[in-house]
Amino acid sequence: MPSDNEKGIAFPEKGNKNHQKEHKDKKHGKSIGWIIGVIVLILISVTFILPTTIFSTTSAQTIEFGKYNGEKIELAPSYDNYFYNQLYTLAQTYQMNPQNEMQLYSQAFYATVLETALSQMAAQAGISVTDQMISTAIVKSGTFADENGNFDMEAYNAASAMEKESMKNQLRDMIPAQVVYQDITSVKTSDSELEFVSALNDAPRSFEYIIIDYDSYPDADAAAYAEADHAPFTTMNLSVITVATEDEANTILASIQNGETTFEEAVAASSTDTYKDENGSMGSVMLNSLQNMLVNAEDATAVFGTAAGSLTAPVQGYAGWMIFRADSASAPADLTDAEVLSEVKRYISLNDEETMMTYLDAEAQRIYGEAAADFTAAAESNGLPVNEVAASSYNPSYSSFILGLIYNDPEGILASAASADTDYQKTLFTAEENTVLEPVDAGNCYIIARPVAAGTTNDLYASYIDSLYPAYIPEISAQDLQTGIFSSEGFENNFFQVFLERIMGVGAN
Predict the structure, then answer these.
(1) Are residues 73 and 66 in contact, defined by beta-carbon separation less than 8 angstroms?
(2) At residue 237, what are phi and psi to the nearest 5 degrees?
(3) Which end of the chain has fewer CB atoms surrounding its CB within 10 Å, N or C?
(4) Is pLDDT above 90 for 463?
């Protein structure tokens, strides 16, 4: 937390001498607040352990971050404030700093919202806490365990009366929330439910499909396109040095120009990009490709205007600050080169979708006419590989327990098309085997698919799903609980605004 921010909460220093002295002669190694973290499970990404329960309060004001069903979610410098305890632990564990401050405040806030919601549910259910429950929780926590893991009464008695009373009070408040959580997440899976989930993978089918993409665009048309607008396809041999900052790039450039080091030595010593292993050489680069690497596209034009053998001033790329060396003068693209033509086609696909997709639509319809008669022959005659998808099950809801297309489609194009269009996915799984389906627009390409007889099912995966589902039910229940709480109409979330104003002092009057 910023040291000059008096609006935030001031925590006692981790190495505070008075605090150390207070616990110097105690045998138990864990802080008393640790037990509270054992009792209450927080449903966010990190399971938190609470700090010591005896804190020094400060003059800082209580800060309200929101409400849940009318109950304030507030941070107060007090040992019995749940938000404060959570934030204290996070601050000590992760060494709070300006980079992680908002994240830690946010985690403590949402933990408090969850605890508040669970406590309200417990109150509505009339859940009460007995002294026996509290005693059992203390013993089972291990806070006062000896070297053999057994409860150490001497260690417990060594704790001050204030500490023990504070612990009991917090447990009395928190145990009901844990009871509610355990009830919600301990739902048992019935045999019928397990049989139903298992049966979802019992009728899989396999698929074959071909892809009609920009590679199908005619070479002659691609060459004509590039001749009509040759600038984006100008080529140049380049080498590059990439570093993190502009200052570092300027220092390296000056060192090369002053003769203190060579370009290749600078690459080896400082460059961070993938061209480092090639002494910085990028080979032949098209202008449009370089534009996609740089934050400011006009910098690419300046690079291509550099004389052969010269260095450029540092320019900002998405991977860092870049110094280019022109290894040749810029030149028109060689439109007889297959790789160059492929780059032209890719450019058309990305920058002139109407031209490319109009052609691919017509081409897909033509190939579909051939494939409807003989799928394999159509693929071979048009030079298109047949992509195979192993036995998959219908999974329109993307369940983790159904072995759907996404797990079995190496190319991912059929799975993507089926995910984008549930009607198409249904057609895939209901059409008769070997029926060639009409072409489908899959983004920047078309696909023609047909269902075929399912091959060998993945029995190992099916067995894994059968065993995983019952174990996963508590997590599903926990996720549903969390989603329900955070999306509740009774949840008033002002975290971001309050954090900026009260903690960071931004926009405060």
Answers:
(1) yes
(2) -85, 125
(3) C
(4) no
Q: Which pLDDT band holds residue 462 (cuts at 50, 70, 90)?
A: low
* Assigned CATH for 205-214+351-452: 3.10.50
Q: Where are the domains of the chain?
A: 17-186+492-503, 205-214+351-452, 235-331
Tokens at 459, concatenated: 């029995």
Q: Which of 311, 307, 310 is nearest to 329 (CA)?
A: 307
- Distance, CA of 216 to CA of 196 (rounded, Å): 45
**Average pLDDT in the 182-203 region?**
69
219-228 vs 338-351: helix axis angle to the nearest 10? 70
- Report the pLDDT value the prediction gives residue 40, as an integer from 0 to 100: 41
- Do the first three CATH levels of 205-214+351-452 and 235-331 match, i.e. the same topology? yes
Q: Report the C-alpha gap between 74 and 72 in whole angstroms.
A: 6
CATH topology of domain 17-186+492-503: Triger factor/SurA peptide-binding fold (1.10.4030)
Cβ neighbours, 10 Å, residue 491: 17
If you search the block for the tokens 């022109």, which residue do you land on? 326
User: What does pTM read for this prediction?
Assistant: 0.54
pLDDT tens sequence across 136-168: 888 877 778 888 888 889 888 888 888 788 778
State the Rg of the chain over Cα.
Answer: 33
Structure tokens at 76: 């107060």
What dihedral do alpha carbons 34, 40, 43, 46 form, nearest 10°? 10
Collapsed DSSP state (helix, strand, coil) of residue 133: helix
CATH classification for the domain delimited by 235-331, as one of 2.60.40.10, 3.10.50.40, 3.30.230.70, 3.40.50.720: 3.10.50.40
Please give the residue that has the higher pLDDT: either 170 or 243. 243
The answer to whether residue 198 scores a pLDDT higher than 90 is no
Structure tokens at 425: 């996915």
Which is more confidently placed, 179 or 380? Answer: 380
Phi and psi (nearest 5°) for 223?
Answer: -65, -40
